[in-house]
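Retro notes (design track)

What went well: tokenization of the new backbones is finally stable.
What didn't: we kept losing track of which sequence belonged to which structure.
Fix going forward: every design gets posted as structure first, then sequence, in one message. First example under the new rule, 366 residues:
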């Protein structure tokens, strides 16, 4: 069986080498996708257009405006006097945030009293508005604490581990690695068996002394090697361009990547046993890998905020387990004991996918 499997793998590998264009796509297009999505997807808000309505014109009001302008989050674009000007600026998208400082702000501050400040935010983008509101509240709270504020009996000093700057890149890049690797692995293998059907060589394979399991494993091995090299290339690219840390063990990381890719490619082979044309196989592969990985894996949207029924569906998405393990290794430097359950889930998925693909192929050959 091992000899047969290696023979199928050797034949498939030679076929891949003849198709240089496909080989380059499998190796370098994922890294290109990482560059595209890595720079395009970013939840960090910077250079928010800020306009100030300063009706106090005191030292305190100017200090507050300077705190906003020097924070790195806001870009001071000008001052306004009337409320009508505020409406016009926001409607024309010339300002997204307006800080309105009332008369007497400096006097109240000098007397140690609380002073009100109004923040007007353009809410046409709810996510951006919520982030900007958080920035504004934090800046105002820090500004208020810097003056003669009453001393609290409780001192709170938060510490954020693993991502102290709260960079969204460190959250998104591991998800992009899972997302890109899943799509390329599933699509590349989904087309392999279907290609045999369209070329009419499947009948020759049936007549050869090859059992379905050897054929499936042999078909998987070449694409597994190429996908593994591509995944490592993606990680190295992310480390070089996006400062992705590597705090864990490379050996454990390779084990996790290997398990994930075996399951992804087995899923692609299962699709190829169902589809009759490459077009149908491509559509099924894209549908079964793109949407679940993007939406149901925790890549963008937290699973805990999903409805209970949808949370149950996410247990069938292998990228969910891969993301937990990948972030634990890369960002936290954790060992296998911290995510062994995810490794078991990935192994179970890979075994089930390979078994179902073998059964489907055996039924076709019968």
């Amino acid at each position: 069986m091992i000899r047969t499997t290696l023979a199928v793998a050797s034949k498939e590998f030679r076929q891949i080498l003849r198709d240089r264009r496909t080989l380059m796509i499998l190796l370098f297009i994922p890294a290109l996708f990482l560059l595209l999505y890595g720079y395009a997807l970013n939840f960090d808000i910077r250079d928010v257009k800020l306009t100030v309505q300063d009706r106090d014109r005191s030292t305190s009001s100017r200090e507050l405006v300077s705190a906003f302008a020097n924070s790195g989050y806001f870009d001071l674009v000008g001052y306004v006097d009337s409320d009508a000007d505020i409406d016009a600026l926001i409607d024309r998208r010339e300002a997204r945030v307006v800080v309105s400082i009332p008369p007497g702000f400096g006097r109240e501050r000098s007397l140690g009293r609380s002073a009100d400040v109004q923040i007007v935010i353009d809410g046409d983008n709810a996510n951006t508005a919520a982030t900007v509101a958080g920035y504004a509240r934090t800046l105002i709270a820090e500004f208020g604490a810097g003056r003669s504020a009453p001393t609290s009996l409780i001192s709170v000093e938060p510490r954020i581990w693993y991502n102290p700057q709260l960079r969204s890149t460190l959250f998104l890049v591991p998800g992009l690695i899972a997302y890109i690797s899943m799509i390329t692995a599933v699509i590349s293998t989904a087309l392999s068996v279907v290609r045999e059907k369209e070329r009419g060589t499947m009948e020759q394979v049936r007549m050869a002394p090859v059992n379905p399991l050897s054929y499936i494993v042999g078909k998987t091995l070449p694409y597994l090697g190429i996908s593994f090299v591509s995944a490592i290339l993606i990680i190295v690219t992310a480390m070089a361009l996006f400062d992705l840390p590597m705090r864990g063990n490379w050996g454990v990381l390779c084990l996790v990547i290997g398990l994930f890719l075996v399951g992804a490619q087995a899923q692609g082979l299962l699709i190829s046993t169902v589809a009759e044309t490459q077009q149908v196989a491509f559509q099924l592969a894209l549908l079964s890998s793109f949407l679940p990985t993007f939406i149901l894996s925790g890549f963008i949207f937290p699973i805990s905020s999903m409805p209970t029924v949808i949370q149950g569906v996410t247990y069938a998405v292998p990228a969910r387990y891969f993301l937990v393990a990948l972030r634990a290794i890369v960002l936290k430097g954790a060992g296998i004991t911290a995510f062994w359950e995810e490794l078991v889930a990935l192994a179970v998925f890979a075994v089930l996918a390979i078994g179902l693909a073998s059964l489907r192929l055996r039924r076709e050959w019968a």
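Added context from the reviewer: DSSP finds 14 helices and four strands in the chain.
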